[in-house]
Design goal:
Elements: H1 2-22, H2 26-39, H3 42-54, E1 68-73, E2 77-84, E3 96-98, E4 104-108, E5 116-121, E6 138-144, E7 151-153, E8 158-162, E9 168-175, E10 182-187, E11 193-198, H4 201-216, H5 222-228, H6 234-247, H7 249-259, H8 265-278
Antiparallel strand pairs: 1-2, 2-9, 3-10, 4-7, 4-9, 5-6, 5-8, 10-11
Length: 280
């Protein structure tokens, strides 16, 4: 009996996956998620997950976490089950809000007893990799989560905030088309941008590695850091320059002077300020 149930669940998920992969319009995807979420129970979802896990002969690390389980993924979409445990925080406590690097769909799977959410937006035409502190978030929509009603969030434009004091269980679909490398962090009280966050995993690792090498101060790292100082990511370039200053001051200054003409305005300005501060 259990085997038949699991087999049926697998077929339901496979049918849904095949449908989603053929859709390009956001409204079509939104409607399809609503229909699917109404056609399947929480028990069916959990049974399907147990079947997936029991069929794994080896542990293969993926992007699932304690609160996120990836149900399927392709070059176009990632479909996951999200559980958000309740948080303890005061309403006056400042938190960070982040833009998305991809278009995202959220669909609540349980009745959540008046959990409110707010969608903020910014529609100014700005580049994701250049922070504009004058871009303030505006309220786009305020509502309560409704079971089986999907919400859609545009990458870089929309930001979601919700009452985190109650648990939620949601489907999440992430469009993997034209993924951005950067997101913006906003202060939840002022609704103003605080910093740019590098989301491209390899770029982020390079930036962190450059920073560590600078702290270690080993001269053997100089050749690698010189190469990274010309990386396509302005954040990686800047971390490499900062590290070079600690390892080889003259070489670092030379890189800073070159960066005074960097194509990224924030890097060129920072380089000019650094050269002036160092009085070189």
């Amino acid at each position: 009996m259990k085997q038949n149930l699991n087999s049926k669940n697998s077929q339901i998920f496979k049918k849904f996956e095949d449908k989603i992969l053929l859709l390009n319009n956001e409204n079509d995807i939104l409607n399809e998620v609503n229909i699917f979420s109404k056609s399947i129970s929480i028990n069916d979802i959990l049974n399907h997950l147990l079947e997936l896990f029991s069929n794994e002969k080896y542990y293969l690390p993926n992007n699932s976490t304690q609160n996120k389980i990836t149900l399927f993924s392709s070059s176009s979409y990632e479909f996951s089950l999200i559980h958000t445990p309740p948080e303890v925080r005061t309403s006056s406590e400042a938190t960070s809000l982040y833009t998305y690097t991809n278009n995202v769909f959220f669909c609540p799977l349980i009745d959540v007893n008046d959990v409110r959410y707010t969608i903020y937006e910014q529609n100014k035409r700005v580049a994701p990799d250049v922070l504009d502190e004058d871009v303030k978030l505006q309220i786009k929509k305020e509502n309560v989560f409704v079971k089986n009603e999907t919400i859609f969030l545009r990458k870089f434009k929309d930001v979601l905030r919700f009452d985190g004091t109650k648990p939620l269980l949601l489907f999440m679909i992430i469009s993997r088309k034209d993924t951005l490398k950067y997101s913006w962090e906003y202060n939840s009280i002022s609704l103003k941008p605080v910093r740019i966050v590098l989301r491209e995993v390899n770029f982020a690792r390079l930036g962190t590695t450059a920073k560590i090498l600078g702290n270690i101060g080993d001269g053997n790292s100089k050749a690698l850091l010189l190469k990274l100082s010309q990386h396509e990511s302005h954040i990686v370039r800047w971390e490499a320059a900062r590290a070079l200053i600690n390892i080889d001051f003259e070489e670092g200054v030379s890189v800073l002077k070159r960066m005074m003409n960097d194509k990224h305005i924030e890097i060129s300005m920072a380089a000019k300020q650094s050269v002036q501060m160092l009085n070189v």
